[in-house]
Design brief:
mainly alpha, 13 helices, 2 domains
Amino acid sequence: MSLAPSIPVPRSRFNTLPLAIGLFCLLWSYAFVAGKIGVTHCPPLILLAARFSLAGILILGATLIRGDSWSLSWRDAAIFAVLGIANNALYLGLGYTGLQSVSAGLGGLIVSANPVFTAALAALLLGEGMTWRKAGGLLLGVIGVTAIVWHRLSVGTDSWHGIVFTLASLASIVLGTILFKLLAPKGSLWIGNGVQNLAAGIVLTPVALTFADVHAIDVTPSLIGAFAFLVLGGSILAYWLWFHLLKVCGATAASAYHFLMPPLGMLFAFLVLGEHVEARDLLGIIPVALGIYLVTRPAKSLSSKLLPSKAAS
């Protein structure tokens, strides 16, 4: 009695996208806690200058060792350098200065509202559509952040000047995002990230050495661990995952994951730093998360489902 030959069943490939999304959210939200630890043992400008310089050297050095070709024109390299000043030097320079007198949870919450304000400016400056849904999301984001900030100020948990620095940090990353869309640099985003980091390190180093006290550095295991995470986990791995998500999911879907950062940031700040979290703060997260979701959720046009695509005609 002969048996029929078995038909090989193709194995399903493991989907790594959920893992990449989860790891990105964890790294990005924990960076605020690591930054808070870092600035308690080291002046923020010195910490950032060292972080950006080392990250830029590691990224570009790895590119050189692997033999990858340089894919940036002089124009694109200059654009990435300018973006490094906005997205790295100003954004984190102001943000880390604010972290000296605000909690890591609040700092993460304020900065995580950047997709909402980016969408508003993109509608004004780039001609991107602003629907009632997006406008409502923008309003919810502003209400949520304002409620939490007002509550923190009223109970004296965070200082007003620290919050001002954090809001200026938010404005810097929004500006950097708009500049990226306006200038549209081409070439490898990985190499561009190296240029951004190195440019930010070069700009911040003389400022840090001029205005910061080197003797104020307290070298502890906590500082070393936080610095290692910020370089490897923040500036290198998290940004690589971010670029991967942009490529796989698209900008709109990828940016929607930022609504997970406020609760994760507050959770990490509570577990690692022991920061107090009140129920009112958690309630304020709800309109922020809903607002960011409404702004970043892709609109599904009924007409696009019913009418044939113009490109096909």
